[in-house]
Amino acid sequence: MTEQEFERLSALIDDELPPSEIGGEVTKLNQQGDARERWSHYHLIGDAMRHEIGPLYSTGLAQSISQQLQDEPVVLAPAAIRRTGSARRKTLTGMAVAASLAAVAVVMAPQLINPEGSEAQPTVAQQPAAENKTFYVAQDGTRWELLKKPAVESKLNAYLVNHQERSPASNIKGIMPYATFVSYDGKKQ
Amino acid sequence: MRQSAVRPFLLIPFLLLFSSQAIQAKEDLTARDWLERMMDAVQRLNYQGTFIYLHDNQLETMRIVHAVENDRVRESLASLNGHPREVLRDEESVTCVIPESNQVSVDRRAPSDKFLNLLPEDLAQLEQHYTFHLLDRSRIANHKAQIVTIVPNDRLRYGYRFYLDSDTGLPLKSDLMNERGEVVEQTMFTELEVGKAEISDLYHRESLFTYRLQNNADAEDSLTDDKITRWAFQRLPSGFKLTLKHYLPDPDSSAPIEQYVFSDGLGSLSVFVEPGGHGVGLNGASRLGAINAWGGHIEGYQVTAVGEVPAVTLLGVVQGMQLKP
Question: Which of 140-179 (B) contact A at CB < 8 A?
Answer without folding.
Answer: 153-156, 174, 179
